[in-house]
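Example 3.
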Amino acid sequence: MGLKKGVLMEVDGNLGIVLTREGEFLHVRLADPGARIGEEVEYWEHGNLRVPRFLAVAAAACLVLAIGVWAFLQSFAARPGPVLAYVWLDINPSVQLGVDRRLTVRVAEGLNREGENLLLKAPVQGRRLREALLDLVDAAVAGGYLGSGSENAVLITTVPGEQDGVPSEIVRNVRSIGDDIRRELAARHVEAVVESISGGRELKQKAQEMKVSPGRIAVALKALAEGIQVSEEQLREAPVTAMAGNAQRLRGLGLGNIQPLQLDELVKQLKANKLRFFQAPASEQLPEKVEEPALSPEQPRAQDKGQDKGQEKGQEKGQQKKQGSEKGEPKAAQARKQGRGK
Amino acid sequence: MHVEDDPIIADCSCEFIYMREDSNSPAELLEKAKSGDREARSALIRAYMPFVLSAVSKVVGRYVTAQDDEVSVGIEAFDEAISAYEDRKSRNFLAFAGLIIRRRLIDYLRRQPRSEELGLPEVYPADDVEAFEAVERRDEIQRFKAELSRFGISLADLVRDCPKHKDARERAKQIARLLAMDEEAWACVEARGQVPISRLEGVTGLHRKTIERHRKYIIAIALIYRGEYFYLRDYLEQ
């Protein structure tokens, strides 16, 4: 008995069907439950045993008894681990995954209709986070949410569960998964900015309060800190690249380097500037004219710098919009098209 | 190398050259080609013409023939890959060649007038052969499963149907290769989902009941040999 290799053809948890180089199709237990279809994987090979019939019957009876005892114990002991962190995937769709200490997805929900559709195409509950995120990215590519053009973005944002902070091991793992997503998209020749962000309880609470993903809030905060004007409508609807101006600017915001404490400090600093979008509850209607947020004396107004065309478009759209909406598929699709310059 | 000089390449009727019993394996041809054997190099390029056509077609987004300029670029890139590849076991050669073909094609297409209308990627594919290979294989596996389902076959069926003994499996694969090359036999499979046993029985010495028992496996392997499953086929041929 030992480890052998084959191409993974189908996967179900830690079991899979592989095709070996010898042309054998085998149902196996995977050495790495996070492996993906198409990868050459290692699996456990079982030897063939031949036993006398009576021993086989006795062994079967013992097995049935053992399974019964195990199931009885499992009913008490084998509860899913608590959700230690929430990992948000923002492509526009936006999806939230709650993971336990083993990085197994315990909770999965879409923030918008596209997010819900994405989860229907790539069910991830009970799967390992790496596999789940890569499958969701695959489904996004197949669904046209990531495709031709250079204004694609994938944000992976980690915020804590019930406790105060995110375990550092989870943050490290998510960053590593971000690298895997970059590799996957590069191998598929899809250009995208891929950023891993982590934030604390305050970011999570703000996201819950505003019903916006924490990743989008992080981008908006960093963009504002760079003097880029972001309206509440853009925060909710625009592609993240459009919030920053374009993909190159998004890359330049340095999101990947944000430490949780830095982000929390940024939230506090911008709160102190009394920016409108932090004060307005989500249910309040937008006025017909978009007011410029109050700025601290140090920050020049955006019109003095010259606004980016993408920002102008977003603000025009805001003026036309009558009500802060939750999710409108046609509007989201339009915002996506504007952001991609189609 | 000029495509128009080689009638076999121009005809593209060479899918099964390297499957013939008397031919060298791709790994052997690659080793000879790298050692300076021009015949082996030509034979390798001819053997992989369907792969080159498929790789070119994916980049340009349309059906291509050997007469297209882009295919000439693809062949030159494949030739370059033969020279540049360094792994003696020749694993991942196909993925390596696929990456080189894409890079050279993107270079070529960017130099064409109105290239901005082609929607070419701004960056080159990353030099990650394993990731590229896994992605290509995953696409093939999805197509393969869909094609299997046309014949009412699932992967779980193949686990049950696959000959467990190595010798029986080799003979079944041999039948699958023959089935893949025989258009008339394959037409029978397409029409009725049945392997034409009488046509193939005498060739390998396998009893007809054995062929019947492993019918689904034989059809599945034949699909891999017949279809555009270059990476899966390459994996089996190593």
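Chain A touches chain B through 28 residues (CB under 8 Å). The mean pLDDT of chain A is 73.
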